[in-house]
Amino acid sequence: MLDAASSKNVTVTKFSPNGIVCVDVTTPQAPRNVVAMIDNSGADPATAKIAGSVDSGAVSSLLCPAGSDAEIATVGGTAGALKPFYVTFN
Are the beta carbons of 48 and 2 closer than 8 angstroms? Predict the structure, then answer.
């Protein structure tokens, strides 16, 4: 799931087949912004979508475990589905 060789200061706290990925950013400061993009080599950019949030209200404890800093949601067609993506936190 996580490309450890290409990742820094991030761990996945939970992921589900319906396209929700919960992330913990392990830097001392909490992230203020997330930029996410579908990996076009592994998903059709015409039908795949992605959204991310670092807002504590959006990173719901119902979906993400405590300590998660961000929630990323991917969609294939009209339903949530895990799709490969890249993400950067500021």
Answer: no
Angle at 20 between CA 18 and CA 21, to 5 degrees: 140
Predicted structure pTM score: 0.88
CA count, 13 A, side-chain hemisphere, 68: 26
Residue (of 7, 6, 20, 4) closest to 62 by Cα position: 20
Span 4-58, pLDDT tens digits = 898 999 999 999 999 999 999 999 988 999 999 999 888 888 889 999 999 988 8
Q: Under a CB-based contact definition with an 8 Å cutoff, are residues 80 and 20 in contact?
A: yes
Domain that holds residue 12: 4-89
Number of domains in the chain: 1
| Cβ pair 15, 82 in contact under 8 A | yes
